[in-house]
Amino acid sequence: MTKNVLFYARSSTTPHLGACFDTQLHYAKRFIKENGWSLDAVCRDEDIGEVVFTAQPGARKLLGHIEEEAIDVVLCHTLDRLCSRHAVAERLLHDLRAKGIEVWAADPGVQIKANDLIEYYCDDQRGMFGRGNPLAPMPDELYEAEHLAPLSYGYRYTGAFNADRQYIFGFRKVDADAANAVQQIFQLYAEGMSPAKIAVLLNTLGIAGPHGKPWRDTTIRGDRRQRNGILNDELYLGRSWVPGRDCFDFVPALQIVAEDLWHRVKQRQHMVARGVAK
């Protein structure tokens, strides 16, 4: 039976972590031909980090196609090129199943069903997802535009126009005022001021902390091993962590802290940990 196929691809900004668009399309066309199906539409997105699924232009185009046309199969190269999180994949499969649409992955050439998702997103850590745990507690935040994933202090959500001049909300941007506070924190700490004194200074100056709350030393100090706290957030270096993988994409537009200042802070943290500095 000939099936109408919509192929969805999401290019990686870090080539060695995922096939480029042309490679994904090549294998998809070969898979479609082998099965005697028909390629009806192609939708594509770029990896832009933690953004809601429906905010991506390609995903919006995909959802529009399945509402307006007779699509039998949504095909992707590998499942992580369609959805990077378990909850998003689960919601998408539910919506597609309700319309009688199947989801297939050209690699390894199988139909994806809801019962298989745990295996793909949790058990198969050595395969398409590498190390990490994509089963983060984030039910619908990356599916519905009304529930955006929380951002690190120093960033805010904004919008952009796609090639069709549609305004897409859900892109990250540096918040200038908060970014200045981040730079000040790093500079003061590198010069020897403790997180507790920095917090007092910021509160005295009337600079609001994350979520508008007063600054606390723990908010600034955080935990180096868990990469949390202002002084340990590598997004300030432009490192955008890829969901479900223990690696990152470098996004220059999101860099707030210069590398030399970052390294000065890391050196002082190391000295504090050894008891050489306070």
Concise overview:
The chain has helices at residues 21-35, 57-68, 86-98, 117-123, 176-190, 195-204, 217-221, 259-273; strands at 4-11, 38-46, 73-76, 102-105, 110-112, 155-161, 167-174, 239-241, 248-250. With 278 residues, it is an alpha/beta fold.
Radius of gyration: 22 Å
User: Major sheet: size, sense and barrel closure?
Assistant: 5 strands, mixed
* Spans of at least 5 consecutive residues with low confidence: 123-141
Helix coverage percent of residues?
Answer: 25-40%
Spatial shape:
elongated
Q: Walk across the major sheet and give the strand order.
A: 2-1-3-4-5
Describe the model.
By secondary structure, this protein is of the alpha/beta class. The chain contains eight helices and nine strands. The strands form three sheets. Strands 2-1-3-4-5 form a five-stranded mixed sheet, with helices on both faces. It has a two-stranded antiparallel sheet with strand order 6-7. The chain has a two-stranded antiparallel ribbon with strand order 8-9. It is elongated, with a radius of gyration of 22 Å. The N and C termini lie far apart (72 Å). Residues 123-141 have low confidence and may be disordered.
